[in-house]
Structures are given as C-alpha cells and as structure tokens.
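Fig. S4 source data, part A: sequence.
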Amino acid sequence: MTTKLSLAALLVAGAIGAASAVHATPIPVPQDEMQELYYGINPPRHAEKAFQAGDAAPPISARPTQADPSGGLTVLVTTLYNRDVGARAEYAVWATATPGPNDRPVFIGSGVTPFLEDLQLTPSGQYFIQPRTVGTMAKLLPTDLTK
C-alpha cells in the first residue's frame, strides 16, 4: 500500500529538495521600474534584507512576508540602492528566520539584476528572504500587491 503525501507535507518533512517546490523564471526589470517597485511598495510587515560586505554570513530577514491567499509571492532582487545593473545575484526563501542545521530553504533562485520572480508557495504562509550575493538586496512581497 502506497501513501500519497502532498507537496507541502513532503517539504515540511524535508523529504524533497526546495527546487521541487516551485518553478520560477527570473524576469528582467528595467532599473527605473525596479526603483518604483522596490521602494514604492512597502506593506507594514514584509521580508526585506541586504547582504553587505562585512556581514559574517548571508543574513535572513527578521520579519516574514505572508503569501497572498493563492500562495503567490514576488521576489525583488537588485544591487544595493538599485545602483548597478547586470550583476549575478542569488537569494533563498525560508520558512524560518533561524534555520537549524537540518533546515533547507523553501526555494533558491538567481538571476541578473535587477529582476523579479513570482513564486507559488503555501497560501497565506509566512516566508523570510535571504540575499546570498554580497552587494545585493532582496524583498519578498505578496504577489497580489505587485500586479
């Protein structure tokens, strides 16, 4: 007898890797549009973090972003202050701000700055963002706020 588990249950159990959770494609965003998106949409509670030279490790946001009712999240990634274009950047989305040694990101993505990615995760779930490239910043927003 075989038991079928949902994708969410498999992720929680750590039985499958994060890349299996969602499939996203980086979407290039013109620098002026990223400026408007990144600095223009600021809900009271959202995940946002910068990875600066001198940080001991890639930081994870202290505050989460709640996915929209359909599970939609939009990740915005750019260089510090959105000043440069064309830099390769990586980020991770976590279900916790303080991952343990056996925790894995829910999703890892990358692209050429500035870019955004739309993700589909657990409806109304809470997620944290981690820029993984020095000199970049990332913001996580419910997709219904960005469209």
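Fig. S4 source data, part B ends here. DSSP finds three helices and nine strands in the chain.
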